[in-house]
Amino acid sequence: MKVNIIGIGAGNPAHLSLEAIEAMREVDVFLVADKGEVKSDLVASRRALCEAHLDPGSHRFVAVADPVRGPDAERDKEQYEAGVADWHAARAKGYVEVMRELPADAVVGFLVWGDPAFYDSTIRIVERIGELIDVEPHVVPGITAFQALAAAHGIVLHEVGGPVHITTGRRLVDQWHPDLGMTVVMLDGHLKVQQLVQRAGRARIWWGANLGLPSQQLRSGVLSEVIDDIIATRARVRAEHGWVMDVYAFSM
């Protein structure tokens, strides 16, 4: 069974590439993780993309209950990795239950925020699906959140010939050093950069939430001067919409 794993960008419908639209048009059934009413507009956004580019009746959506992942912030590295592996396996099992009911020649699609290769589990989950049934994965790249962040702020993410360090909030405090150059942080639900104010208070930060969507918010400036505003803005966006997807870059 062919499985199209399609990067759809950071939220703006204009982020879709021609290759992504072509891959979407091949799909008979889009599988989406049902994360509850709070995040239902994420599914609605995917539906809107399909309505804009696909013929009515050419496809359908099937929502699959998302398994509980657990309190990642409270786990050490070994527990965290084991928990993620269990979550991948549970997700794969749920998707396989649906896929086994489809015709053998059906094409299944996953619409992935950003790019499937950067801090997203879909490729790994499809690999787990392949351990249970025969699948033929096809990956389509998308605009990443950090690309959208750089464009929204009109910046280059590195000095001339310099490095870019991409990491997660979970690793930031232990890994960061001024010599890393520009540091891009994803998956940071707790804005761990606030713990670096004493060490890097004069660093410059570029932050963005819900990039490309009507609820987009941008902030930039000296870390010690804007961090309180970023914290408050992030909390407000989350309260208004039930979720927030943010990313930031900072450099000394």
TrEMBL record:
InterPro entries referenced in this protein's UniProt entry, alphabetically: 4pyrrol_Mease, 4pyrrol_Methylase_sf, 4pyrrole_Mease_sub1, 4pyrrole_Mease_sub2, CobF
All copies of domain Tetrapyrrole methylase, residue ranges: 2-226
UniProt organism field: Arachnia propionica
Keyword annotations: Cobalamin biosynthesis, Methyltransferase, S-adenosyl-L-methionine, Transferase
Enzyme class name: transferase
Protein name: Precorrin-6A synthase (Deacetylating)
GO biological process: cobalamin biosynthetic process; methylation
Transmembrane segments: none
SUPFAM superfamilies listed in its UniProt record: Tetrapyrrole methylase
GO MF term (any one): precorrin-6A synthase (deacetylating) activity
EC number assigned by the record: 2.1.1.152
Cleavable signal peptide: none
Lineage of origin: Bacteria, Bacillati, Actinomycetota, Actinomycetes, Propionibacteriales
Metabolic or biological pathway: Cofactor biosynthesis; adenosylcobalamin biosynthesis
